[in-house]
Amino acid sequence: MMTTRQALGDASIASVDTPSELEEGGLGLSPTMAALKRARKHHGLKIGFGILLVMAVFALFAPWLAPHDPYLQNLSLRMLPPVWTEGGNWEYLLGTDHLGRDYLSRLIHGARISMTIGLGAASIGAVIGVTLGLIAGYFGGWIDQAVNFLVTCQLAVPSLLLIMALVFVIGQSVTVVIFVIGATHWVFYLVVTRSATLRLRELDFVAAANAMGCSKFQIAVREVLPNLVNQIMVIFTLEVAVAILNEATLSFLGLGIPSPLPSWGLMIAEGKTAMFFQPWLVILPGIALFILVIAINLLGDGVRDVTVTNRRN
């Protein structure tokens, strides 16, 4: 007859996870390997990454992939429809615009401009916001109060109106648009970085570094900042999408990328006068903009999901 001790012992042995079970659940792996394991199972992340990879290839190799010069004008071929409609031809797959420029070539080169502005502006915002958030969260006191005052001032001014005013005063160019959008989109970086730093500075590893004689700068940069990478990556992906939409909005309003550069927002603005007769002039760059932004958002959501350290499959 089985004793109570034997029954409890068998139950405890049965409750212990085997190495294979631990590996299937993502336990027993390094944080990097566990995140990669979750990433392989995250469909949204794979879809977003795949779309972005394709668009990145088009953006990087635009001069070789574009069938025509995106700046070459031919008024005798203006307003050609896409190949699938009546009057279209295979030499100009997506037709031409009001100046006879190949629309497919301009869309491909437009991907380069949109991704450059998105990455550049998000990087500038990250540098400003993470720096201010790390300083405010770690040092606190009057520094934290001063940074919070800057955030309040920034939130009190509509960002789009501020961007429009700065671009109008400084002048239109790709560089100006990148710096202006980046300099006005750092608040989310700051808020997330500050709140995470306030929590991290109270943990034991920070106290240990302080006891070892490390300076505050060393602790903030070497101990606290590496633990903020996951949160910064998520905010970065979302801010890239926001920057791309802001650039398209500015170009549509005539205050963004100057003509004849192929910006998707500018292409929509140029095609709006003929949208009832040639709707593809507006629909095609709108679809490209939608696909790029939704891919970035899918990637950002996926990065957020797979970098949660306490998540188990």
From TrEMBL:
Main location: membrane
Membrane topology: Multi-pass membrane protein
Transmembrane segments: 47-66, 113-139, 146-168, 174-192, 232-257, 277-299
InterPro entries assigned: BP-dependent_transpt_permease (IPR050366), MetI-like (IPR000515), MetI-like_sf (IPR035906), OppC_N (IPR025966)
GO biological process: transmembrane transport
ABC transmembrane type-1 domain segment(s): 111-300
GO cellular component terms, A-Z: plasma membrane
Keyword line: Cell membrane, Membrane, Transmembrane, Transmembrane helix, Transport
Subcellular location(s) of the protein: Cell membrane
PANTHER family: OLIGOPEPTIDE TRANSPORT SYSTEM PERMEASE PROTEIN APPC, PEPTIDE ABC TRANSPORTER PERMEASE PROTEIN
Family: Belongs to the binding-protein-dependent transport system permease family.
Protein name: Binding-protein-dependent transport systems inner membrane component
Organism: Marinobacter algicola DG893
